[in-house]
């Protein structure tokens, strides 16, 4: 895997903490231990498109009023969904 910013080949798969705005725009939450890519060459830390999509879909399908100010990525992904899937994504 290459760094999406500088193209270096020596990226690391690791975790970091991120802040995410909820889909309803009411607030942001901290998501700890989120999978990320870290590039030792340019110093960038970022989430892959797959991780971003996982977070965004999960946040669309859960009760946002029950989401605490801070939780881990694993806790977010284990939060029970109101819907089984994202019915608004017409490409799937």
TrEMBL record:
It comes from the Bacteria. It holds the Pfam family YokU. InterPro entries: CHP03829_YokU, Znf_MqsA-type. This is YokU family protein. It comes from Metabacillus fastidiosus.
